[in-house]
Automatic annotation (TrEMBL), chains A, B, C, D:
The lineage of its organism: Bacteria, Bacillati, Bacillota, Erysipelotrichia, Erysipelotrichales. This reaction introduces a second double bond into the aromatic ring system. It comes from Allocoprobacillus halotolerans. Its cofactor is FMNH2. NADP(+) binds at R47, K53. This is Chorismate synthase. The gene is aroC.
Length: 356, 356, 356, 356
């Protein structure tokens, strides 16, 4: 399926970067949920562009316009349709984009798939802008999860080769709250200063950098998920890989677990009072595809922004010749900071869907 | 969903490690496909246990018994049900497994989810043995893909800290054929010798090791996949994460791409005659969620086998006290070699499903 | 699922009768389809209210506003979002509707399901108005089908106890074109005159009537559909039962076939030149759940409009007492004529989805 | 999808009439359900052939062999695979069936769809025998529903032109129990005697008859179901149309409601103590697609058995000429009595799936 997702909640995403609007339909949410619009605005703002020199100067207020499913700020149980109008899309000549394929972008695969009929303006339906309605949906999802005590938070784990520390075994609510209140959340306060330098260096070189995001979900009940095709990992991963530029997803200690011995990788259980805990959490709160009650921890790897001003080799599909391209326009030298809330949102949607 | 998967083909997996049989129902395959049973037997053998000291001494012939959907060796178009009888399961006392939770296994999450009613003998439905019917299904899928020229092959990328080299940009059919003909495929012939030592060292220490597998799919047409929720990455990853012990999935250069600059990560296009190619393949044949015609390349990370004979701390869920456990029985000190064909099989099933 | 439907194409329906707008997201349509907007307007007009005294006097132009997925009148392959703004909804006091449940409507079940949070204005999300975006989607679907030669048309089979004749075994394109060009299509031109009288009689009595619609799909290739869970009947019926007020669906000769003998009900095959035909079509073009190449024929039964001005017994869910209600507002004494194009649209969507 | 069904529970059906076995995989059932095997045997017996001259003389014990998912008679939460071995299939020459298409059967559509590779022996995967595993699954589903107080029962509403009475508004448990305890359940005890004569008359004439079945589900909570694509009607109907030979499905008063006036068709609510009831139940317990707490009532129409010994006109697809066929073998002159428990089973599965 291309545009729809979900078993219990349902998402249908639509719109193009330079069309009238982008939006989402969210089905099957419970009725009677009073939405905290301030929270939603804050999450939208964390993703919105144009807030500093690290992100694209395109100024979009990303104001969510609710069409259906909410009355007096409370969900009615009917599908919620929310739109974000594209107010600040530059009119310009897109004829070059139709024929010269930008490396690292969807341009060429989409050209083949849609026989040249896809909207190429600003990336069309493939634009990272489409994550804005996903953050809106995720913000609602995390409000519903919070009523069950489940809380989600993420930090920038790395930018290029600059590393933040990792989550420890115990992750408390105050830490996640603190992370969610920052525009550039890192566990080590100093880490982001170095990261910022790295991003600035790339920007000055008309280049871009990527990085990793680590996310935690706490207060998950044990026993959620299924063996095989609908394990927690199998349920979360498609949503995480739906985020443009994500190229890797790993759980717990991720790739590092492949270099451990069994006696290290096995998280030993113990009773803390009546509660079952593990001494380490290399499995990220999931064994056999099912939650064990420890925090769900995962990492996503994000590639450097493909839009760079540097001259690049490519092809012209009209003339069928090799050529070069210089991608103009407003780019983020690094989308990792803006992607943090997108990752949290996807996690919230996946978990809410699994809870049924 | 727990037991079913697929949009165009359909999988339904069933059975327990020490029950009568394990099996699979495969729906919606085309009629008229003449199956190469020798290929199927070879793929089953690559996964089967008991072939040397690196794997569990449990001797299972893993003979596939076909119940329906095939007549005179040709698919009829009706669902194929295939069973593998459990001939060599040891009868023993499983009462300890009911109460003492093995670390790193599904035991505790399953205990919570199924209220203690799950079959614990040999891991029950969670057993790695359930991958045998998946290899059968995958072997059929790759035969159908081969009719379209699409070929799949994988190698052991690492065991513990011993690394094989990686696929180069061009991957030809003969290389994949060569890899698929080996029980322990590596690109660097010397690498497996060191890996074998590492596995033996772990076995002697009553411990276990994990590793990574790198897989390639060649001759994929460009234009397959969708933006967002059904990207190639989003479609492959749930099947890959359905393989027990897989904790990470990454595409192309995977986590390494997060440390590249944009001008490196962007794979530059060029025409080779009429064919569109890229000079590098850091994106693993997928941009914007859609294939670009280059080989699809991905890695999966597999944790060390959780079953180890070393004494481990854990809990007794009946007495609700802390205790220790020594996991007896026949274990693989490393499941990575046997998992290679499972990874290839899952890739074949996901790709066949996407081709519709 | 509540709001989404489809395997190959995808529908996501949203909006409320008296909210800002109603709309639909249609995913996975092929790129490059040039839409005939005049056809779409004609189909929308056939469903639109306010065209004569048989239908509700609510004047809605039902103009479709396209938000995404179409550029220069051609599909781009990205999801199409289309909205219909609610221009003519009367502001009034809906407090009675919140507590006094209208018989025959969704009011009481929705009150229980949504704990009283559902939008009750004009029926909210349950309004028959939601069929307008479905007609838009269906109109696109039938244009795509027409490129394959497949054509759909329906007639009013009965209103109350006034019967039209039935389709004969052969149904040609000109007949279906003729039916689709009428606002009140019947096979017997005289039948609708009597039907009109019947509707008028009900209107004058502050009452309402229902009826049946018979629909045909011609030039269907043989071999479409599947045994059991995705038979043509199983695939069409959920969409047909999704039309508000539909209470029965039958194929071929429908309930009449239960009173035939086997030798009558079995449609005998014969070759007409190279073409396989049947002498009768009691099975409606489907045996074993799969098309046989004859016209698919089916009937839907539509109950009388539940909104009537007559005084009716009901309950007040707030005071938990028995009471009476007089449903005010603008009602159709019979929705069958406007439902004809809705039935055709649902058929088009179901068939397009099955063709993959 | 062809072989799989379900959102919360999951069905995967397999097997051929004259293959080794037929069977089903049932996923996502709750763990810890102790199965009443006597009930299952009784339901299987109600469907089994060979019990008298009204049904095919093929003697099949239809013994269910459980492969997985049940331990000590209790569900484990893992998928249940159940098989029924085909013990009494006659070996004979099926070469005529390969080329001469039986009218009213799947033969010709399947020939086209599967390019002649489908198993034609005894109807292969299309055989009515495939309903046996569905009755097994349904029998488990109704045991789970019974724990919630929900009870299902059906009666033969008509055979050819002989009618039974219909359910009244109130349907109590004892009536449904009584119906379920009979092999030939009718409300009017005399009705079946006449029906039996009608069946016998058809049998003597080498012909067959069909009929209707009316089914009720009582003690359903109000508020189950959804508007539009997953209404109760939309959810039940695909399963009912999956039963071979079913050509119509209607709810409440079905097609009769199309001849009522609005003031008759609207079921008036009233409080009976604290309970909400309706005075009539023409809507069959469902309005707006959602249950209102009254019994769900529906009818299915079943065509006469297509296998008749009479000589019939047909085609030979090999020679591409018109020919005649006389269907030999063991046939039911009427499958309606055996279909009653199949209808109840499908209802149980659909309702259990909706309850989530």
């Amino acid at each position: 399926m291309s545009a729809n997702w979900g078993n219990n909640i349902e998402l249908s995403l639509f719109g193009e970067s330079h069309g009238e609007a982008i939006g989402i339909v969210i089905g099957h949410l419970p009725a009677g949920v009073r939405l905290d619009m301030e929270q939603i605005h804050w999450h939208m703002k964390r993703r919105a562009p144009g807030q500093n020199k690290m992100s694209t100067p395109r100024q979009e207020k990303d104001e969510v316009h609710i069409v259906s499913g909410i009355q007096d700020g409370i969900t009615t149980g009917a599908p919620i349709c929310a739109m974000i109008y594209n107010s600040n899309s530059h009119s310009k000549d897109y004829s070059e984009l139709k024929v010269n394929m930008r490396p690292g972008h969807s341009d060429y695969p989409a050209y083949v798939k849609y026989h040249g009929y896809n909207d190429v303006r600003g990336g069309g339906h493939f634009s990272g802008r489409l994550t804005a309605p996903l953050v809106f949906a995720g913000s609602i999802a995390r409000q519903i999860l919070l009523q069950k005590g489940i809380r989600i938070g993420a930090h920038i784990k790395s930018i290029h080769d600059i590393q933040d520390t990792s989550f420890s075994v115990d992750i408390d609510e105050s830490l996640l709250n603190q992370l969610s209140s920052k525009m550039y959340p890192t566990l080590d306060e100093q880490a982001f200063i170095k990261m910022q330098d790295e991003i600035e260096k790339a920007r000055m070189a008309q280049d871009s950098v990527g990085g990793m995001i680590e996310c935690a979900i706490i207060n998950m009940p044990a026993g959620i998920g299924n063996p095989f095709f609908d394990s927690v990992e199998a349920h979360l991963s498609p949503l995480l890989f739906s985020i443009p530029a994500v190229k890797s997803v790993s759980f717990g200690s991720g790739e590092k677990i492949t270099q451990m011995y069994g006696h290290e990788a096995n998280d030993a259980y113990y009773y803390q009072g009546e509660h079952v805990k593990t001494k380490t959490n290399h499995n990220g709160g999931i064994t056999g595809g099912i939650t064990n009650g420890m925090p769900i921890v995962f990492q996503v790897g994000i590639k450097p922004t493909p839009s760079i001003s540097k001259l690049q080799d490519t092809i012209n599909v009209q003339t069928k010749t090799n050529t070069q391209i210089q991608v103009k326009g407003r780019h983020d030298p690094c989308i990792v900071p803006r992607a943090v809330v997108v990752v949290e949102s996807m996690a919230a949607l996946a978990i809410l869907d699994m809870l049924g």
